[in-house]
Design goal:
Blueprint (H helix, E strand, L loop, with lengths): L3 E4 L8 H14 L4 E5 L5 H5 L11 H5 L15 E3 L8 H4 L9 H7 L7 E5 L6 H9 L2 E7 L2 H5 L1 H14 L7 E6 L6 H13 L13 H8 L4 H5 L3 H17 L13
Parallel strand pairs: 1-4, 1-5, 2-3, 2-4, 5-6
Helix pairs in contact: 1-12, 5-6
């Protein structure tokens, strides 16, 4: 089963961190043991689960610099988390001359991969060394996208980067799937762009789409996941359906559309 998944998009504001948090929490609800790795210097994933980055003795930054193993914070009834910190913003410069710098995270993950069913990596909104480390460690990728022309334009570049990493560094990186986020099918442009994506990438897109829902924003304000905040919300239903699809995809089963996701 493919268990290490990079959540990636070099465009910010597309629901990348939100999806990492809620897919991780949803997988836990389905009985999976999950580790989330916050590889974004903004540390929003860390903060989303009520963890103060400034209070941590060690973060992903120290691990990448070789000062410790991955520092895992254990969360009861929720995913374990490797926290991030603003210091991570200088890691790319500091690691630039390190031998094998693109595979540091992969080696760290190998030490504890057997302990988890899924390891999700929240990538920064860039295509630098941190994202390269995530793709070098991953076996698949999820690309969250909003239904706007600007969001879709950069996807081709992402596909090229994933293909190059597979060819040159990580032959185990053999698939990606597009996750449509913040959609509102009352808008004609959203319906049109959704149909376009499904026609162009029929085997590379989740059947479930994440509908715009104020409950997601409210859960972030409360620094928790959507299931803990409002398990009966449409947003929780959407993310749980994504998790069900993901389990089928990563278990190498053919999957079909889950019918209880109403748009």
């Amino acid at each position: 089963m493919k268990k290490v998944i990079a959540i990636i998009n070099h465009k910010g504001g597309v629901g990348k961190t939100t999806s990492t948090a809620n897919i991780g929490a949803g997988l836990c609800r389905l009985g999976k043991k999950v580790l989330l790795i916050d590889l974004d210097p903004q540390a929003n994933l860390t903060i989303n689960f009520g963890i103060n980055p400034q209070e941590q003795e060690a973060t992903i930054y120290e691990a990448l610099c070789g000062k410790c193993f991955l520092p895992v914070i254990h969360k009861e009834n929720n995913p374990d988390i490797v926290p991030s910190t603003l210091d991570l913003s200088v890691a790319e410069m500091e690691l630039n001359n390190e031998p094998g710098r693109e595979s540091i995270l992969s080696r760290l993950i190998d030490r504890l991969k057997f302990q988890y069913d899924y390891i999700l990596i929240d990538c920064p909104p860039s295509l630098g060394l941190l994202t390269l480390n995530a793709l070098s460690a991953a076996e698949s990728a999820i690309i969250p996208v909003e239904l706007s022309n600007f969001s879709l334009v950069g996807m081709t570049k992402l596909f090229e980067v994933i293909a190059k990493v597979k060819e040159r560094i990580n032959p185990d990186l053999d698939e990606y799937h597009i996750l449509v986020t913040r959609t509102d099918k009352r808008q004609a442009v959203h319906r049109e762009l959704s149909a376009y994506l499904r026609e162009k990438y029929p085997d590379r897109i989740f059947s479930t789409e994440i509908r715009s829902n104020v409950k997601i924003l409210e859960s972030q304000i409360k620094r928790t996941d959507i299931f803990t905040f409002d398990n009966g919300s449409k947003a929780a239903n959407d993310y749980l359906n994504v998790c069900r699809e993901l389990i089928m995809i990563t278990s190498n089963h053919k999957y079909g559309k889950i019918t209880d996701n109403r748009h």
